[in-house]
Amino acid sequence: MGECIFCQIAADELPSHRVYEAEDVIAFLDVNPLANGHTLVVPREHHERLQECPESTAIALWSAVTELVPAIEAAVDADATNIGINNGSAAGQEISHSHVHIVPRFEGDGGRPIHAVAGRRPDLDDDDLEAIGEAINQHLK
User: Fold this and answer.
1) 114, 82 Cβ separation under 8 angstroms
2) How many degrees, rounded to 5, is the angle at CA 85 between CA 112 and CA 120?
3) Residues acting as catalytic residues
4) Residues contacting residue 100 through CB under 8 Å, at least 6 positions apart
5) Does pTM top 0.85 for this prediction?
6) Distance from C-alpha of 101 to C-alpha of 85, rounded to nearest angstrom
7) Long-range contacts, stretch 15-18, CB < 8 angstroms, 24+ apart
8) Residues 10-14: contacts with CB under 8 Å, at least 24 apart
C-alpha cells in the first residue's frame, strides 16, 4: 500500500511523532489535532476497516489504546478522553487505513459527547430496538 500515508509512517518512510511502538501497532500524534495530545493508534499492516483486521491485530490495537489513554491524559493534564473510530467513508474515515483516535478532553473545552457525531437521531420505540437487536444477532458469526 505505497500510497497509504499510515503505511508509509509505519514503514518509516514518512516522519511522525511516535509515542508508542509494538509488533503489530504504532501510535503517533495527529498532525491535525483536535486537542493537545490527540493521538492515532494504527495497525502496522494495512486494513481499511476495523472488521478487516485479524483478531490478533484488533487485540493489539485495543491493548495499545488502553495503555496509551492514561499516559496521554497525564502528559497533557487532560480531564478525560474521547476514543473514536471512523469506520468507513460514510462515518467520516478520511484515511483508508483502520485507526483509533484518542482525543484528550478538558473541562470547559467546548467539545461535545460522542452522541454529537451523528446527524438526525432516529425516533425508536422498544419494538424497533427489539427488531434491530434480533437482526444484529442473526448477522453475528
Assistant:
1) yes
2) 50
3) 99
4) 40, 41, 42, 61, 65, 83, 84, 85
5) yes
6) 6
7) none
8) 10/42, 10/44
Domain of residue 135: give its range.
Answer: 5-139
15-24: burial string, b at 16+ Cβ within 10 Å, e else: ebeebbeeeb
Of 22-31, 41-50, 116-125, 127-136, give the lowest mean pLDDT range.
116-125
Mean pLDDT for 76-100 is 96
Q: What is the CATH number of the domain that holds 94?
A: 3.30.428.10
Please, what is the average pLDDT of the chain?
95
At residue 11, what is the residue type? Answer: A
7-65 residue pLDDT tens: 999 999 999 999 999 999 999 999 999 999 999 999 999 999 999 999 999 999 999 99
